[in-house]
Design a protein that fits this description.
By secondary structure, the protein is α/β, with parallel strands linked by helices. It folds into 2 domains: 114 residues, NAD(P)-binding Rossmann-like Domain (Rossmann fold, 3-Layer(aba) Sandwich); 161 residues, 2-Layer Sandwich (Dihydrodipicolinate Reductase, domain 2), CATH 3.30.360.10. Helix content is 32%, strand content 24%. It is built from 8 helices and 12 strands. It has a 6-stranded parallel sheet with strand order 3-2-1-4-5-6, sandwiched between helices. Strands 8-9-10-7-11-12 form a 6-stranded mixed sheet, with helices on one face. The radius of gyration is 20 Å and the shape is globular.
Amino acid sequence: MQLGVIGMGRIGRSHAAVLDANPAVDRVLVASRSRASADKAAADLGLEAVDLESLVDSVDAVVIASSTDSHPELIERAIVAGKPTFCEKPIALDIEPTERIVALVDTEGGRLQIGFHRRFDPGYAAARQLVISGGLGTPYVVRTISHDPVPSPESFIPTSGGIFRDFLIHDFDIVDHVLGEPITAVFATAAVREHRVYAKYDDYDVAAVQARTASGALVTMSCTRHDPRGHDVRMELFGSRDSVVVGWDDRTPMRSLEPDGRRLPADPYEDFLDRFRAG
């Protein structure tokens, strides 16, 4: 099997390395809108770089990890070519191109997966089963925490889609997935509290959401682009039969201020890749 990875930033490089290590994969080709970036990544990873225009026709399936603004065009190219496609979230920056791509996939009978990885994390899967089984009881309140350890590089910000579409999209997705019902009402707010570079691109470094689901469960979301203690992504669920948390373990970067409370772990999760390698 031959696979192609488009986009040679941090996530694209990670995908390429993981795929190359998979014994079921015979060959990994990489490409980027910048040929120099693709050539550098290929040299670093021991892979082969090709032009973006030729990659889709040269492989059996495609992974898209490029900037968000390029997703619709690249998804369309891969689906029309009949290639199974994995794309990092989101599909697009706006509703219209998102709906157009969904319709295209249906019309073409294509196979497209979007990178909502939390759905496959054992803790979130267990939370979903707890809700389905009735073990949680009636869901009262759900709280999500999504805190990155360091601010984004400036080059990432202009095409990221912003803190809601790039970051909190995971929280909206996992609440819907775990509870099995959509969010129907939202109040959201955001600010630049520390890292002024986000304001340069009409973006934010902190955000908060209050929401309500179709059945009436209440949801709060906390999101920051900087957590001085490390990578912290959690979900707390409170229901009529149980209270549980996902993402809380010996390396979660939180400490208690109670005299006999939990101390900060010696090796808190450093970043996203560190957290999910451990998972």
